[in-house]
Design a protein that fits this description.
seven-stranded antiparallel β-sheet, 24 strands, Glutamine Phosphoribosylpyrophosphate, subunit 1, domain 1
Length: 584
């Protein structure tokens, strides 16, 4: 994946499309959205690199790498800082997925730290007394939506397998910021004003708002002594300390005693939680191998489905500044999401045809239904991939997740793509021991049955809700590392990551150009184009082809590292958010 020529590709695109890419985006459908910081944070280096959603997290990871730590060590240090300074997106009360490529062997390992439903959860969890689904945000706020957190268990397990530096040392940057305080950034401040459910919890209200009820202002130094104590305990006793003893009791008590919507999460649920190594899901795109996280994430299967259908079209010969390739992308995503919605769920509970969903022959057959010049009418029907179970109903429920992603490569060539989340911005809004608890259970389908039978992603005790997180590693035909990437963005994560791969491979854009590029996605409804960007000029041509077009803010947070054929790294953070790139 050679480095790109941004001025040759992007500037002609902008001139043809008749607009510019704005760094100021707002997304009503995803409260986690806010304004970006302007110019893309971009870096190049010969050996190692970090790209994450906040400069303080990048600094922490860079220091770990300088001290001889591995990419895994650096990822842990960065994630712990993000838990403090970016609480709207992730934290130790949430979960995530970890994808690692070994620099020596090239082996890909994937670790599932997704939350689980408590033993007391059943298929009617989000149904009211009339058996109707609760309104989404009614279900979010409070203990009912809280799943067993998986992030710390996953990070501890990753460290045991791949870490080099002592566990406790990785907490030092976050501990210092929790004790001394950190400056509130515009993104955090803006979101506090837009997420009312935080104010219902006394601990969260006292931390995030002043005595008058106003959000902590930009520039305010926010200290978190309770999280300092929690992190100090986890540093000394290990990540498993979250799942037993006083911390587990505090979590269960907070959930069960919620005054409005108490949940059933128990100390026993925490004690029985386990992150899991799962087989990576890999597939070919052109001459490259793309690997990511399989179910319960729908990320890799759906990204690979989009790419597998586009494989049958020679995108590289098309002009990325025209509608032609993006019509094809929208149609491929439309079909891929139909399969995602029907089949993907927790593979420990539901039979998921993972291999069939990414089968090249199956995807080529799906691609043959794509008309190169006209959009198909109506909602796409799911296909029948090899191994597909019968009697499953497709689930179109899509939450409003708040998520973060970081990409790291160390000097030994080890690569980590880590995506984590508390689901909606600030999760359930419940704060305990200095951190927020997730609302990941709202990623389940609220209605357990549909016209065709049981929904694959229905609620069940101990089950992991479906995710769209797509931490991804790309290698070339020789097995050499070529890309590490991922993004937040709810169910649109899949489109963001698939589009980034297409831009880098088919048009050889560099990392900065990839993250700058306007977005397009079809999740089974309208073809969405990113509002206030150069793609605005595509609205009429796409409509003429039969698309129902919706211009919407699409606040991705792509953090991308590309490796050139000369081995040098280039990394970029999405200008729509506050991320940056750094080198040791």
């Amino acid at each position: 994946m050679a480095r790109a020529f941004r001025t040759l590709l992007v500037l002609p695109f902008l001139l043809i499309a008749g607009g510019t890419v704005s760094a100021d985006h707002h997304e009503r459908a995803e409260p986690e959205a806010s304004t970006g910081t302007g110019p893309t944070a971009f870096a190049t280096g010969p050996a190692s690199m970090v790209v994450a959603a906040d400069a303080r997290a990048v600094d922490a990871a860079v220091e770990v790498l300088r001290a001889g730590g591995s990419a895994t060590d650096a990822a842990i240090a960065a994630q712990l800082v993000l838990a403090l300074v970016e609480p709207q997106s992730s934290g130790i009360g949430g979960g995530g997925f970890f994808v690692r490529r070994d620099g020596a062997s090239g082996a890909i390992r994937t670790l599932d730290g997704r939350e689980t439903a408590p033993a007391g959860a059943g298929p009617d969890l989000f149904l009211d007394t009339a058996s109707s689904p609760l309104p989404f945000f009614d279900a979010v706020a409070g203990g009912l939506s809280v799943g067993v957190p998986g992030l710390l268990h996953m990070l501890q397990r990753a460290h045991t397998e791949f870490g080099k530096r002592p566990w406790a040392t990785l907490f030092e940057p976050a501990l210092a910021l929790a004790k001394d305080g950190f400056v509130v950034q515009p993104r955090l401040h803006g979101l506090l004003a837009r997420v009312p459910h935080l104010e219902r919890d006394p601990e969260a209200r006292a931390y995030f708002f002043d005595a008058s009820g106003d959000p902590r202002p930009v520039g305010h130094r926010l200290r978190n002594p309770r999280l300092f104590e929690t992190l100090a305990q986890l540093a000394a006793d290990g990540g498993m300390a979250l799942y037993r003893g006083n911390l587990a009791e505090a979590i269960a008590r907070k959930v069960n005693l919620d005054p409005d919507r108490p949940g059933t999460l128990s100390v026993s649920d925490l004690a029985h939680y386990s992150s899991r190594f799962r087989e990576p899901v890999c597939g070919q795109y052109r001459t490259y191998r793309v690997c990511g996280m399989g179910p319960p994430s729908s990320g890799a299967t759906t990204v690979l489905a989009i790419l597998g259908m586009l494989e049958t079209f020679d995108l590289g010969r098309m002009d990325p500044g025209t509608v032609e390739p993006w019509h094809l992308f929208a149609e491929a995503s439309r079909l891929a999401y139909a399969d995602r919605n029907r089949y993907v769920a927790d593979p420990d509970v539901v039979r998921v045809p993972t291999t069939g969903l990414v089968n090249p022959e199956y995807l080529a057959e799906r691609a043959r239904s794509i008309n190169p010049v006209a959009a198909a009418a109506g909602r796409a029907a799911p296909g029948n991939p090899p191994g597909a179970p019968g009697g499953q109903h497709d689930d179109r429920t899509s939450g409003q997740p708040s998520t973060t992603h970081l990409s790291i490569v160390d000097s030994a060539g080890n690569a980590v793509a880590l995506t984590s989340s508390v689901e909606t911005a600030f999760g359930s809004g419940l704060m305990v021991e200095g951190f927020l608890l997730n609302n990941q259970l709202t990623d389940f389908a609220f209605e357990p049955e549909g016209p065709d039978g049981l929904v694959a992603n229905r609620v069940a005790a101990g089950k992991r809700p479906r995710s769209s997180m797509a931490p991804t590693v790309v290698t070339d035909a020789d097995g050499s590392l070529r890309a590490v990437l991922g993004s937040p963005g709810g169910s649109r994560i899949i489109c963001y990551v698939a589009q980034a791969i297409v831009l880098a491979i088919d048009w050889k854009l560099d990392a900065a150009s990839v993250v700058d590029f306007p977005h397009i996605c079809n999740r089974g409804g309208p073809t969405e184009i990113e509002a206030d960007t150069a793609f605005a000029s595509f609205e009429q041509p796409l409509s003429d082809q039969g698309h129902t077009v919706a211009a919407r803010p699409m606040t991705s947070g792509l953090n991308v590292i590309l490796v050139g054929e000369d081995g040098r790294l280039s990394g970029a953070a999405d200008p729509r958010r506050e991320g940056t790139a750094g080198i040791p």
